[in-house]
Structure formats: structure tokens, C-alpha cells
Amino acid sequence: MKKIDFQFLKNRPARSLRVKLLGFFIIYGLALLALLWIMELTLLGSYYQRSMEKKCREGIYRVSVIYSMDEDLGYNEFCSEIGTLSMENDIYFLVESQDGMFSISSADVSSPGRFFPETNKIMSDAKKMLESSGKDEISFSSHSAGMKSATIVFAKKVESRFRGPVYIYAVASLAPLGPALEILRSQLLFTSVIVLVLGVIVAVISSKHLAKPMAAINKEAKKLGLGDFDVNFAQGDYLEINELADTLNEAATELKTSDDLRKDLLANVSHDLRTPLTMIKSYAEMIRDLSGDNREKREEHLGVIIDETDRLAGLVGDILLLSRVQSGAESFTLERFDLARAANEIFQTYKIVEEDGFTLIFEQPTFPCTVYADKAKIKQVISNFLSNAVKYSEDNKYVRVFFEREDGCIKLCVEDKGIGINKDLQENIWSRYQRSSQKAARSKEGSGLGLSICSEILKRHDAEYGFESSLGEGSCFWFKLKQAK
Ligand code: ADP
Fold first, then answer.
1. Which pLDDT tens digit goes with each residue over 111-168?
2. Closest CA to 449 of 462, 430, 432
3. Ligand 1 midpoint to CA 435 (Å)
4. Which of 62, 78, 358, 373 gets the most CB atoms within 10 Å of its CB?
5. 266 CA to middle of ligand 1, Å?
6. How far is CA 134 from the centre of its chain?
7. Using DSSP, how many helices (H) and how many strands (E) does the chain show?
8. How far is the CA of 448 from the centre of ligand 1 (A)?
9. d(CA 209, CA 221)
10. Protein residues with CB under 6 Å of any ligand 1 atom
11. pTM of the model
């Protein structure tokens, strides 16, 4: 079977909300009116006919009961009873005895004015049909040329213990429906015009209401697109639009934050890169102009160049790593390993600082320290903690690494008795480029990226982390990893 391609529906050009809403309202109004017209004008006729048929059937039954059951009923009383029935139901009754002896017409007493001109013909047709069918009761509707509307005819043959058999006819005209339909039609036309006009007014007002906040949001969004982050997406009367405004406000704040960070990053990075680059350039010039022939001097200057290049490479590496971890581009390879052993490996590389008078203590844990994590990244965290502990120690050169077991986790702590961290820095120490304003800390080399890299790595491990510090007494940086079975 050939598939219908609905692509054209998807590719339709977008229309304005107002036009669409107006269109929907008009279509809805027209559909409603069409339904009303169909219901009123088409179904009303058949509904009226069915109700008249029901009345005729019930009427003929009542007349037959009066005739056959009431022994003492006189002619006049009988006529009066049928007359009442005729008036109540707007039906023309005729009763005719078989030999023609007992014959009455309710039209005589009820509504003499409404006489069916063709009653005799209808009656004789009905009688013939009743006799030829062999049934007690028949019904049909006739639409003869002389009459404007259809007529419903019911005929019944009734036997009585007290009187002879009779034919009872009930004839009802559907003529009253005509004028009623005329009135309805003109009323409906009037109602339709009102409904359509009202629909258009409601559509215009509500589309205006809806489109107004959208247009305001659009205006602000355009500003945002042009890089103006001081925007405010205003709230309106609609929940969905308010949610959209909230989301856009949040997005604007986020964009502003990351734009500020980008500017900071650029400023910091260019500053941090410029210092070693200047050093490298100066020392290279010195070698070219002065120390080129002096082996000892040249070696010394080349050493500075190599050191500065290392610093530069480390800085660029840190920046790249941080942005890769933050953006999720850095992949993490989880494995089971002994945290104590990994920490010890890093610890050993710092042993050299003992030559500067440091006391380095590694407390071997008495419990198993198996964890499931990215070993290289965790080693980098430990290395950053250790390097900071060493870097920010003044006269009290003491660093201790120890482990604790807490709620199924292994807690690794790196403690020092260094300069400590002032309150201002403590609040956002894990954010990048946060460096202490303390004189003692400012004299140390650093990029302010180490702890934010640690924080990103630990977050990716769902690990708890933190620090305790008091100014002039020292700090203790720690993290917890779930103990693996
Ligand atoms: P960096 O050390 O390169 O400046 P970090 O992100 O590792 O960057 O640390 C940020 C700041 O936190 C440091 O500049 C320092 O002021 C402070 N800090 C970190 N560790 C310690 C510590 N053990 N003792 C005192 N201050 C610390």
C-alpha cells in the first residue's frame, strides 16, 4: 500500500498565534453551528414524527379500551371522552362500526375547524389495508398531493362484548412542524451570526492576551542573543508562560555567570601565561647575547627556561583538564584499587621535601581500603592536597596523611600545620581562580585551579569532600570514597 507522505504538514510555514487562534475559534464556531443546524432542522422532523406516532398508538389504544370496556357508556359521553383525548394530543379520531350503524368522528366535538379534507379516502385506504393484512392494527404515513405535509394514520379493529366490532382510526398531521421549523430556522440564523461574532471577539481578545507576553519574552530573548545579559523575562497571567520566563531567566543568569567566568579565565590565563613566557623570552635573550659562550651561565639560564616551560605546561594542562572534566569530555575509568597504597605512591614522591625540614607522616590504615574509582584521577586529588599542604606551610613544616572508616566509606585526610585559610576564602575555595589574600599565601606560586580540579573529580565520583582549617594553625583536607567489597 502506498504510504501517504505527511511531510508537507510538518513543513507548513509557521503562522502567528493570533491568526491560528482566530482560525481555531472560527472553525470551532462553524462546527458547533453546523451541528446545531443538523440537529434542529433534520432530526427535529423525525423526532416529531416519532412522538406523534407514539401518541397515535397510545390514543388508539385508549379509545379501544373506552369503547370495549365501558358497558354503560352512551354515545354522547363516548364522543366527549374522545374529544378530550383528541384535544390533548392534537389527533383526529374516527370510530366506525362495521355495518356503518355506529359511526362517530371526534372532529365533531374537538376541533371542527381542523378537518382533514381527505379523511374519507385515508379511512377507506386504512380499512382496506387492515382487512387485506388480516392484522388487528396497522399504521402508515400518507403524503397525498392535496396536502402540504405528511399525515400519520393508525387503524385498529376492536371487538366488544357489549357492542359490535368497530374500526378506530387515529389521524395526525405533521403540518404544525412546518411553521415551527420556519421560526427555528430564522432564530438559528440570528444565533449563528451572534455566535460567530462573539467567537471572533473572544479569539481576538484572548490571542492578544496570549501573544502580548510572548512578544515581550521574544524581545528580551533577542537582547540576550545579542549578548546583553541584563534581561528580565516578565511573568504574565499564564502558568506555562511564567514557567518559560523562569527558565529563560535562569538561563540568562547561567549565561551571565559563565560569561563572567570566561572573562575571568581569559584575564587569569593570559596573566599566568605571560609571566613564564616573559621569563622564557628574557632568559633565551640572555643566552643569545651574554651567556652563550659561558657554559656554566648558559646551563643555569637554560635550567630556568626548562622550569618555566614546565610551569607553563602544567598550567595549560590544568586549564585543559578542568574544562574537560567540567564539560564531561574527560572520560573516567573506574577500577578496584587499594586507596592506601595509591596514596602512599604519591606520598613517596613528596619525601624529597624532608630535606627542607618537613616532617612527613603516612599512617598506614589497619583496615582494608579497597575502593572503586578512577585511580589516576584520585591520585591527582591526593597529589594536589599534598602539594598544597607543603606549599602553604611556613615554619611548622608538618604533613600527615591518615585514614578513617566512616559509614562504609574510606576517608583520606591530608593534614598540615601551615598558615590555615582565612574565612573569606573558605566559602568558595573550591571555585577556580580562588586564591588567598593572605600575604603568606600570595607569595607562593599557584594558579588557583588545583582545588577546583579536585572538586570536579570528586563530584564525578559522587564522593563527599571538605576541609577544616583555622588561621595560623593549619588545615586538613579530606574526601570519602565508598569502600568496595
Ligand atoms: P593554588 O594552590 O594553585 O593557588 P588551589 O586551588 O590548589 O590553587 O588552592 C586555592 C587556594 O586555597 C590557594 O591559593 C590557597 O590560598 C588556599 N589553600 C589551599 N590549600 C591550602 C592549605 N593546605 N593551607 C592553606 N591554604 C590553602
1. 443 445 566 777 778 888 888 888 888 888 877 555 556 788 888 888 776 667 788 8
2. 432
3. 6
4. 373
5. 21
6. 71
7. 13, 12
8. 7
9. 19
10. 384, 388-389, 392, 416, 418-421, 425, 429, 434-436, 441, 446-452, 475
11. 0.52
Q: Which residues of 386-419 are buried (b: 16+ CB within 10 A; e: fewer)?
A: bbbbbbbbeeebbbbbbbeeeeebbbbbbbbbbb
Determine the residue of 435, 465, 475 to mutate for testing ligand 1's pocket, defined as the one with the most ligand atoms within 8 A of the Cβ atom.
435
Amino acid in position 298? R
Sequence-separated contacts (24+) of 435-442 with Cβ below 8 Å: 440/392, 440/394, 441/392
Instruction: For residue 99, give the C-alpha cell.
Output: 355495518
Give the DSSP letter string of 136-198. Answer: SEEEEEE--TT-SS-EEEEEEEE--SSS--EEEEEEEE-TTHHHHHHHHHHHHHHHHHHHHHH
Q: What number does the ligand 1 atom closest to the CA of 448 have?
A: 8
In angstroms, the CA 408 to CA 130 distance is 100
Contacts of 232 (CB under 8 A, 6+ apart): 220, 249
Residue type, 280: I
Ligand 1 center to 386 CA (angstroms): 11
Question: Counting beta carbons within 10 angstroms of the beta carbon of residue 291, is it exposed (0 to 12), middle (13 to 18) or buried (19 or more)?
Answer: middle
CA of 276 to the centre of ligand 1 (A): 20
Question: Ligand 1 center to residue 388 CA distance, Å?
Answer: 6
Tell which atom from ligand 1 comes closest to the C-alpha of 393.
24
**Cα angle vertex 73, ends 71, 78, to 5°?**
135
